[in-house]
Amino acid sequence: MIQLFPAIDVIDGKTVRLREGRFDAKTVYDRDPLEVAETYAAAGFQNLHLVDLDGARTGTIQNLHILQSIARKTSLHVDFGGGIRTLDDVVRVLDAGARQVNVGSMALRAPEKLKQWARKMGAGRFIAAVDLKDEVPVASGWQTPVERTWKTIIASLLEMGLEYFSVTSVRRDGNMSGSDLGLYNKILDAFPGIRLIASGGVASAEEIRELEASGLYGVILGKALLEGEIELAQLKHFLSC
């Protein structure tokens, strides 16, 4: 059964969604992140993808208090990302209640450091975010291209023992234009058995079924869930198993 990861992105303590990773193209929602998380927990979700966009932009964690609040007041398994640059950051995030740490820029730019973290904390504690813009890996809040292919990056991270990978199709993120199933099939063909989490553009429950049939481990749901394009009632099949 595919795992569902509803997403809450945070700027200045508020629930937001960006379009294609652009901070000048954001939607601010009149719902507190904790309130949103409690709604998801009540609906039967087990996971939550929590992103500190202030941290992603500045390089230092900014919204740890929101993680702490959600971890205290819900039973959600939270993966947290944004601004994580040191082992101390990893420890702070895990101590604040995260089940896993979502690492993007460090996975792409300093994989040896991530390898050290995984050895110390356990590889299962990390989700490596390999985010792609036109299939080119990007870091630093999706603003900076990385001069390595996604295939090379994923292969090296797998060799280090990383188990979980999330891949965002940046051009589709926040657009509800449909997920990039072709991209995910390429990755699954190249790395059979990888625990791959899809993100970007998912707009219907039917797409989730297609992603599940392709063999994906999980899918991140953002704008379509927040705005009711995907209704909670449509997800009962995935939440009841």
Keywords, please?
alpha/beta, TIM Barrel, 8-stranded parallel β-barrel, 37% helix, 241 residues, 11 helices, 3-stranded antiparallel beta sheet, single chain, globular
Give an account of the 3D structure.
- Helices cover 37% and strands 26% of the residues.
- By secondary structure, the protein is α/β, with parallel strands linked by helices.
- It has one domain: Aldolase class I (TIM Barrel, Alpha-Beta Barrel).
- The protein has an 8-stranded parallel beta barrel with strand order 1-4-5-6-7-11-12-13, surrounded by 5 helices. A 3-stranded antiparallel sheet has the order 8-9-10.
- The chain starts with a strand and ends with a helix.
- The model has no long low-confidence stretch (mean pLDDT 91).
User: Low-confidence parts, pLDDT < 50 over ≥5 residues?
Assistant: none
Query: Major sheet, described briefly?
Result: 8 strands, parallel, barrel
CATH uppermost class: Alpha Beta
How much helix, percentage-wise, in residues?
Answer: 25-40%
CATH architecture: Alpha-Beta Barrel
Order of helices and strands: EEEHEHHEHEHHEEEEHEHEHEHH
How many domain units? 1
Query: How confident overall, as mean pLDDT?
Result: 91
State Rg: 16 Å
